Task: inverse folding
């Protein structure tokens, strides 16, 4: 893991946090909200870890009665999430600044870990996923919405070409092989559902 890359990622998200929701507003209304709803239909508690909570876009989709630890690398993003959380006074969501590559959490603590469009920006995604596996219970579940590198030759070429630009602008690597990374981290894929072409996927996995 490169500490320099982690600092760079944190700085990038601190910088874009004031405009992050505006930047994604059209995609949120047209696609993302529906995909989040699909993902959160599968959540099981009571203990939940949300990785990369960002500005708190998933708050409306949490069912009642859960104990949620929601982490993010960026204080700028968390400050936005805190403001949104005030609209959910009955929610039991504990916001913490934390790096998924180095979780300050006990082993085997959570029933479900959830992340939406996060592991595209984690500097070492396999390390981060291994940490998530460590803090999940043996029978726990990992729920992800992720955009991944397409297997279609033309799209694949274009995504690899554009990825350095998207990283500089938004922090998102669009050339990640996330399904393979999940397996490298010691998970077994239970479900892999294409939501948009073969780029945006809903993924359900369990520790092996």
Result:
């Amino acid at each position: 893991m490169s500490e320099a890359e982690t600092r760079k990622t944190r700085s990038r998200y601190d910088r874009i946090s004031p405009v992050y929701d505006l930047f994604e507003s059209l995609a949120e209304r047209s696609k993302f909200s529906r995909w989040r709803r699909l993902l959160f239909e599968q959540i099981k508690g009571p203990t939940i870890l949300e990785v990369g909570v960002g500005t708190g876009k998933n708050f409306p989709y949490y069912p009642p009665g859960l104990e949620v630890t929601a982490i993010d690398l960026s204080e700028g993003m968390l400050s936005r999430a805190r403001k949104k959380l005030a609209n959910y006074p009955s929610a039991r969501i504990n916001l913490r600044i934390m790096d998924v590559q180095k979780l300050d959490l006990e082993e085997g603590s959570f029933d479900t870990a959830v992340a939406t469009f996060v592991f595209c920006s984690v500097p070492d995604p396999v390390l981060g996923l291994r940490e998530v596996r460590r803090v999940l219970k043996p029978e726990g579940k990992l729920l992800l919405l992720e955009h991944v590198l397409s297997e279609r030759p033309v799209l694949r070429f274009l995504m690899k070409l554009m990825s350095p630009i998207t990283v500089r602008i938004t922090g998102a690597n669009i050339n990640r092989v996330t399904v393979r990374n999940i397996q490298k981290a010691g998970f077994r894929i239970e479900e892999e559902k294409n939501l948009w072409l073969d780029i945006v996927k809903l993924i359900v996995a369990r520790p092996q």
Remarks:
- The chain has a mean pLDDT of 95.
- The beta strands are 47-51, 67-72, 93-97, 110-116, 136-147, 187-196, 200-207.
- The chain is about 40% helix and 25% strand.
- The radius of gyration is 16 Å.
